[in-house]
From TrEMBL:
Signal sequence, start to end: 1-32
Keywords annotated in UniProt: Signal
Protein name (record): HAD family hydrolase
InterPro entries: HAD-like_sf (IPR036412), HAD_sf (IPR023214)
Organism classification: Bacteria, Bacillati, Actinomycetota, Actinomycetes, Kitasatosporales
Length: 214
């Protein structure tokens, strides 16, 4: 790496650390508005430095309802604005995603069985023009085995963390209660849908977080 590129990367990395601290602060009730993530941290940074920052490992977990999808009063379900594009960008950047979501434990004896029931439930009410991107989530759909495991109990986040293979973990949801629990367990937690800040955690921040996992 030449000196110019090294300096650029170091500057990007320092910016990323500051942003990560700001995002973590934003999960705390009463945090200052200045903790919001700036709209563009990569402006003017060479593409080679951004590629260096993208290396590493991170898994982004989401709540489902009112974080990625919206259920209308008539029961129909579709993506929230920007959700499909955000998942597509994560897919293009080869960042794995998962779901941590409450469903009735009676829907199945395993995560796979409950995930299949969840898929049938969502798809049966789906009215969006673009199908929900189930393939992106693979086997990373964590659901409660018992009523005691339902969020905000920590069990689902702990289970996902135990299967992360050392990757950095992100959790995005619309409620401060859930992001607070995730943050207490070591996730970079981001509350979605807040005014004056990006709807979702910017992908470039996740890439820098992934780099720090190595």
């Amino acid at each position: 790496m030449n000196r110019s590129l090294l300096r650029s990367f170091r500057g990007l990395f320092r910016t990323g650390l500051a942003l990560l601290g700001a995002v973590a602060l934003s999960t705390v009730p009463g945090a200052a508005a200045s903790a919001a993530v700036p709209a563009d941290v990569s402006h003017g940074v060479p593409s080679g430095a951004r590629a260096e920052a993208a290396r590493g490992c991170a898994v982004v977990y989401f709540d489902l309802g009112e974080t990625l999808v919206h259920t209308a009063e008539d029961g129909s379900t579709s993506y929230l604005p920007g959700a499909a594009a955000y998942l597509r960008e994560l897919r293009q950047r080869h960042i794995e995603v998962g779901l941590i979501t409450n469903v009735p434990p009676s829907w199945g004896a395993t995560d796979a069985e409950r995930a299949a029931a969840l898929k049938r439930e969502v798809d049966g009410a789906w009215t969006g023009s673009v199908p929900f991107a189930w393939k992106d989530f693979g086997d990373r759909i964590r659901t409660p085995r018992t009523e005691a495991e339902r969020k905000p109990a920590p069990a689902l986040w702990e289970r996902a963390k135990g299967q992360a293979n050392g990757c950095r973990l992100v959790y995005e949801a619309e409620t401060a209660e859930e992001t607070g629990v995730a943050a207490s367990l070591g996730y970079l937690a981001y509350q979605t849908g807040q005014p004056s800040r990006p709807a979702y955690l910017p992908v470039r921040v996740i890439e820098m977080l992934a780099h720090r996992s190595r």
